[in-house]
Design a protein that fits this description.
Blueprint (H helix, E strand, L loop, with lengths): L6 E5 L10 H9 L4 E4 L12 H4 L5 H6 L9 H16 L6 E6 L3 H10 L4 E7 L10 H5 L17 H4 L1 E3 L7 H11 L5 H8 L5 E3 L19 E6 L7 H15 L4 E5 L5 H4 L1 H12 L1
Parallel strand pairs: 1-2, 1-3, 3-4, 4-7, 7-8
Antiparallel strand pairs: 5-6
Helix pairs in contact: 1-12, 4-5
């Protein structure tokens, strides 16, 4: 790796894990950039499925009511994990890091950037929740600009009751899987979608969606920020993306650099080369 370049740290979105980024990480490393993708607390290798999820055929009633083993995961734990990854990544490059978050991973990018702005070269939100101060992800999910989003139609439990945003990532129901594909992977083949879904966990800790965003112009606003708009996204709608960018720009008093991809919600799978080109631009 070339130590005159910033390194990258990648944060996955809800229900996903670090494998999300493998195509992007491989391409960046081939161009001399160091990159770290991690599983967040409560996700990937740290995720525990409810017993009802492991019983097939699925009992919808049991699945809808069993408390989540991941319910105790906090946003503070996720912030700490990412800060540790940033410290490690900084030693692999020029001492600065480009922090990249996808989807719900954006709610971790913001507090980490507010906490350690001096360690960051830039932040990049890839069709992610970039929330102004005082807003929670759940409020954005319910915002009028997100009314056409498909993800809430997948939910199979009351988040307050089970402590998680829960859906059946292992469902074999064709219509349900088609809905998931449309939400997350509309520009992938069925085979690619099946592979992507095989990596998912069913419970995303609801506490992270209930954490109010905090950002200040002096700290968060001092970091160059980029937003990758995914123009065919049906998980975080284009109008939702635009609303968040406008709200943060107004709050910070400066502009987000916006990039465009003609992709669905998962460009790290469907448009990795184009996404890497944007990330390298952010690293310059």
């Amino acid at each position: 790796m070339q130590r005159d370049k910033p390194a990258f740290v990648f944060i996955h979105g809800a229900w996903h894990n670090k494998a999300t980024w493998h195509k992007v990480v491989d391409r960046l490393e081939s161009k001399g950039y160091a990159a770290i993708a991690l599983d967040l607390p409560g996700a990937g290798e740290y995720s525990i499925s409810p017993e009802a999820f492991r019983q097939r055929p699925l009992d919808p009633s049991a699945f809808a009511t069993e408390p989540s083993p991941n319910a105790g995961t906090t946003q503070e734990q996720r912030n700490a994990a990412v800060c540790s990854a940033i410290e490690e990544a900084a030693t692999l490059g020029n001492g600065k890091v480009v922090l990249v978050g996808h989807s719900l991973g954006g709610v971790t990018v913001t507090p980490v950037a507010e906490s350690v702005p001096e360690q960051l070269h830039a932040v990049v939100y890839v069709t992610a929740f970039m929330l102004p101060t005082g807003m929670m992800a759940v409020q954005m999910i319910q915002h009028e600009t997100m009314s056409a989003a498909l993800v809430p139609q997948l939910f199979m439990a009351d988040p307050e009751q089970v402590g998680a945003l829960r859906w059946d990532v292992a469902s074999t129901d064709p219509s349900y899987r088609a809905l998931a594909k449309a939400a997350f992977y509309a520009d992938l083949s069925d085979e690619e979608t099946d592979e992507a879904m095989s990596q998912l966990h069913c419970d995303e800790p609801v506490a992270v969606a209930l954490q109010e965003s905090t950002m200040t112009a002096e700290r968060f606003g001092s970091i160059p920020r980029h937003y990758v708009k995914c123009q065919q996204d049906q998980a975080i709608t284009l109008s939702g993306q635009e609303h968040m960018i406008s709200a943060v720009d107004n709050t910070m008093g400066n502009a987000t650099q916006v990039h465009f991809l003609n992709s669905s919600h998962s460009p790290f799978y469907s448009r990795p080369d184009e996404l890497v080109a944007i990330l390298i631009e952010a690293a310059l």
